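## Example pair
The file below holds two records. Each record gives the amino-acid sequence first, followed by its structure token line.
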Amino acid sequence: MLVTATEMLKKAKAGHYAVGHFNINNLEWTKSILLTAQELESPVILGVSEGAGKYMGGFEVVSAMVRALDKSLGITVPVALHLDHGSYDGCYKCIKAGFTSIMFDGSHFDIDENVAKTTELVHAAHQLGLSIEAEVGGIGGEEDGVVSMGECADPEECAKITALGVDMLAAGIGNIHGVYPEGWPGLRFDVLDDIQKKTGAMPLVLHGGTGIPDEMVKKAITLGVSKVNVNTECQLVFAEATRKYVEAGKDLEGKGFDPRKLLAPGTEAIKAKVKEKILLFGSDGKAFN
């Protein structure tokens, strides 16, 4: 059964670990993540961007697929189905489709409009028992074709959004989506520390978890980060494994062109990467606590 992200993140913050948020975009990826989380007895969050939702046939299709896999695979660990970087309209579509958690990215609005829209969505989500994430400050890089340099969040603005009743808060602290550029200065732990002091018990979210050095991730967790988003890293290992399979001519051997065989190396690579991240975040063995 799918659950909201709220309780799992509260437990993570109290236990000083983080729950992995892994973006999905097809059946193989979803199955890999669920099976790995089950093996490690870890709660897990399946993230879906609006672009990925459209690619997979719509949010209703995604919701049905995740629920069917959860049941058919006998998954017993807590699983949340979460909208990643959602628009105002996208949030309502996911609420209707049966997602258990939404994210409203109002960071490009001025603070008053962000507050108004977030307040409305908090009410709509909580009426149905769903969790909701908000964002303050811009996360750099590219997400669904939108390119941004990013900006650090204002701790006072974080406190203002937290007071609206959101369940988790993504704050820009120098993190970006995609591959980190050469010479990237690293996370702004001074900003994260200030945000933690202003937001108290609020679970914080670190977007752009791909490529951040392990020690930085661990330090961020000590400063209140309870969810880490990973997407690009899974894409990279999937592409590498698939490329090696084709370059080795495996697709030309027997029925090596069968998609089940062609996609198998990438699927195993994702399992390995998800396992690596769950162990780094410290959520292994925490599913039933």
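Second record, same layout:
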Amino acid sequence: MHQTFRERFFDAMEDGIAILGATPELARNSDTEYRYRPESAFWHLTGLDEPDAIAVFQRSGNTRRFLLFVRPKDPSMELWTGRRLGPEGAVKELGATEAWALEEFPVKLDDLLKGHDRLFLPLDGGSLQSQVLGALNRLVRKRRQPGPLPGEIRDVRRVTGELRLRKSAAELAWMEKAAKVTGEAFREVYRLTKPGLAEYQLRAVFPFIYGIHGGDWAFETIVAAGANACTLHYVSCRDRLKKGELVLFDAGAEMGFYAADVTRTIPVDGRFTKRQEQVYRVVLKAHKAAVDTVRPGVTIDEVHGAATIAITEGLLELGILKGKLKTLVSKGAFRPWFPHGTSHWLGLDVHDTGDYALDVEPRRLEEGMVITVEPGLYLGADDKRVPQPLRGMGIRIEDDVLVTATGHRVLTDDIPREPRDIEAAMATKARYLKALALPEPVKAAKPRSASTRTRAVKK
């Protein structure tokens, strides 16, 4: 898979040299590190999931070289932190043309840069950018030999991002696995949800289900009960679920480093009230309108446009907006209650790389692209523009949608989203966990009588 990605990258980069670095390990505190996850563009092209590595790609005519600088073999360190590929393993297992220990990179950097007119580099202000540009500036100032040096510098992630937009069959297989595992987690949470549970208890179910299927979380899970759902990126998850409220879940598994991203909003006690369902169906109608729009040749702006029309119609029906639909849509009157976009790219990253416009024109969807579709309504608890009975509801419905040759396919379609389907799923027995026990309430200690206290002292 990665060899194919490299060949596509070499085709796209033209003659020149490209340099990418792996994500470094990050300390969590004085003696532990965060779980390591490779930088997506680096892993996409190399298949290496070790930290402290640098990849170099050189193209000159028909000559293509894939070079790696990696951590050297070190039995004493491998005893503590696990096997390292080392330079020899990088050639044998990853297909590198040549490989060296990481400490050789600054020694060889000058010679690597010579002979190329074009340099592709992450322009993120990081240490690799500083190191490479520092070496290039030194070569330019002290140029003594004929031959080209890079005079054109491009952001390598513009190239890698473009390549990652259209998913291969192998990538789609991983995304389908991520969607399936995410669905397993959501259905289990449906079964477990009940009044009195804490948001953090339900949040804990998601990584548990991902983990037993060999996955991990793609992003921090959101569990937002009641009015907390009106905060778009609510992550504290300390409150308890109350009868008569809704609870919003935004979660996604990562399988093979590929992400899912799904949002559902369900009734805490298993059944929608009439008012809850009225607002929910506004968002559901917008979701359906947006998904139905997805096909090759359409822009993400058009997908968003379909959602905003339906949301605005709903706001009129709910009595929140007044006026003519066309005028309200053109003025963006929906924005106080639907402030975000409807879609983003999805892949190795939850908000995957890739330009949304080409020059000044919006990009048109193509077969193999994957986007989210996630309209929402957020009716704040203190928003006096909203009728009192509707305040404090935050509802979002999100699915992962693949653009096919003739239309689209919803990768997360099996996760219940219709009100009756949600209610039916919530009424079934848990599959992986018998139940989530409600925390025992803290009981006040009973005061002892004076005689009891006296006896205790005498003893």
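Notes on the second record: Confidence is low (pLDDT under 50) at residues 449-459. The longest strand covers residues 63-70.
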